[in-house]
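Preliminary data (for renewal application), adenosine monophosphate complex.
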Amino acid sequence: MRLILLGAPGAGKGTVAKLLTQLDGSVQISTGDILRGAVQAGTELGKKAEAFMKAGDLVPDELIMGIMEDRLQEDDCAKGFLLDGFPRTIPQAEALKDLLARLNITLDMAVNIDVPRDVILDRLTTRRTCSNSDCQAIYNVKSNPPKVEGVCDKCGSPVIQRDDETEEAITRRLETYNEKTAPLVDFYEKEGMLLTVQATSSDDVIAAIKAKLGS
Ligand code: AMP
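Predicted structure:
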C-alpha cells in the first residue's frame, strides 16, 4: 500500500505505520527518524536540521524534499510505503504530488489520524524513545514501559526522552502543526483521497484503513 499518514505529533502515526509494514511488506518512511539519525551521525543534513528540531520548528522544505526524492526511489519502496511525518506543509504536499507524477507512482490515500488534544499532550510527555538511531523503538512510561527501566527491550540501548519532548518544545510543535500541517487535511480532501479516522487505538485505525482499502 502507498499511504500518507497525517496527524498531530503523538497521534500515533509511527505506531500505525509499524503495524502496517507487517501486513504487506510496505516500508515505513519517517522523516523524523531519518533526521534524528542524521543528527546523531553528525552528517551535513543533521547539522542543518538540529536547531530547528530542538526548538520544535520544521526543517526547511528544500532539505526534506531532497531526502524524499532519494528515499522514494530506493528499491525497498517497490512494495509500497507509509509516509510518516511527511508531507508537513502545503509546499511539501505540492512537491510530493509533482515528484510522484514524475516517478509514475499513485497513492492509495491520505489517512488523517484525529486524536483529542488532551490525549496527545499526555502521550507526548510520557513518551520515551530508544536512543539508537537504527532502532528508535517507542515506549510510554505509563502504558508501555521497557521491561528494564531505561533500557530498550529490542536492542539494549538507553531509552531517553527526546530533546523536542520537553513541555516547551511540545507546545511549539503543536502550534507548528496547527499552523503549517493541519491545512493538509483540506488539501487531501480536495484531492479526493482523504480518510479521517477518529480513534485513539492503533488497532482501530488499522481496521479503518483495511476496510477502506477493501483488504
Ligand atoms: P517527528 O518525529 O515526525 O515528530 O519529527 C521530529 C522533528 O523533525 C519535527 O519536529 C521537525 O523539526 C522535523 N521534521 C520531521 N519531518 C519533517 C517534515 N516533513 N518537514 C519539516 N520538518 C520535519
